[in-house]
Structures are given as structure tokens and as C-alpha cells.
Design brief:
Elements: H1 17-26, E1 31-32, H2 39-47, E2 70-74, H3 79-91, E3 97-101, H4 103-107, E4 130-132, H5 139-154
Parallel strand pairs: 1-2, 2-3, 3-4
Helix pairs in contact: 1-5, 2-5
Length: 168
């Protein structure tokens, strides 16, 4: 018999504050709608009924960054769009997370070598938490990326918030 047994009434839950807050954060992600190219169609398919982002607590796509905490960058990021992407990222309140979806977003895609107009990876503009490769990645891949992000959020601590390296 342990020392804690019979000290609390039935139905009382004891947990750490970190676990409780991280559980709430990981199961209520609100992504901002930010589709740039063909990957955006796969992102929309992930939110539809067949794959259903809502099952994982991330189905409420928000039209404004001030109501979101997740940015899914889906598609080719050009230098012209990079400043707008950075502006929207800065408007998302903390804690904020980024998923880079697609080969063009992750590393420039087929435009990597000869395209002068394409950013060679969105991580040069904003800090990325999860990369989802593919051209275009299937909706299952985006769901896997969301699950990886949820695992990352569940292991964070409120006491020690890591400093984000935000590119200039």
C-alpha cells in the first residue's frame, strides 16, 4: 500500500500543469489558411471529410493570423511572397508553430537550381517546426506531420521556453 492511496476522494485527478497545458495546446491547434500553390489543394483535401483534420483537433482553419497558432505553408514561396509570409507569421500570437508542406516549401522544389524567384526553403524566412516532404504530399503525410507537431508540443515545458531563432 502506497502513501498516497486513500488520501484523495474518488474522481480527483492529479497531474502536472505542463501536461495539462500541453494537452490543451496540442489538441486545439488552429491553422491559418495559407496555401500558395498545388500543395494547398492537398491541404484542403486533408480538411475535408475523407481525411478530416478535425479528428486531431486542428480543423478550425482561421482566416486571420491573430486567431491562429499554426501556419501550414503549402506551396512555392517566392521572394515576393516571403515578406508577406513573414508579416503574417509575426501576427500569430505565441506559442506559434509552422509546418512546411511540399518539396517547393521545404527546399525550393524543381526550381531549386534554375529558379531565381523561389526561396530555397521557407526556413530561411520563418522557423519551421515540422517538415512534410513530397510533391505534392498526400493528405496522410500532412496528418503525420500534424501528429509529429502534437508530439513536439506535448514535450514542451512552460518553465523553459526555447528561444526561437527567427531569421531576419
Amino acid at each position: 500500500m502506497s502513501w498516497i492511496e486513500n488520501r484523495f476522494e474518488e474522481g480527483v485527478i492529479i497531474t502536472s500543469l505542463d501536461w495539462l497545458i500541453n494537452w490543451g495546446r496540442s489538441n486545439s491547434l488552429w491553422p491559418v489558411t495559407f496555401g500558395l500553390a498545388c500543395c494547398a489543394i492537398e491541404m484542403m483535401a486533408t480538411g475535408a471529410s475523407r481525411f478530416d483534420f478535425d479528428r486531431f483537433g486542428a480543423g478550425a482553419f482561421r482566416p486571420t493570423p491573430r486567431q491562429a497558432d499554426l501556419m501550414i505553408v503549402a506551396g512555392t514561396v517566392t521572394y515576393k511572397m516571403a515578406s508577406r509570409l513573414k508579416r503574417l507569421f509575426n501576427q500569430i500570437p505565441e506559442p506559434k508553430y509552422v509546418i512546411a508542406m511540399g518539396a517547393c516549401t521545404v527546399g525550393g522544389g524543381p526550381y531549386f537550381k534554375h529558379g531565381y524567384h523561389v526561396v530555397k526553403g521557407v526556413d530561411l524566412v520563418v522557423p519551421v517546426d515540422v517538415y512534410v516532404p513530397g510533391c505534392p504530399p498526400r493528405p496522410e503525410s500532412l496528418l503525420e506531420g500534424l501528429l509529429r507537431l502534437q508530439d513536439k508540443i506535448r514535450h514542451q515545458s512552460i518553465a523553459k521556453q526555447p528561444a526561437r531563432a527567427v531569421p531576419a
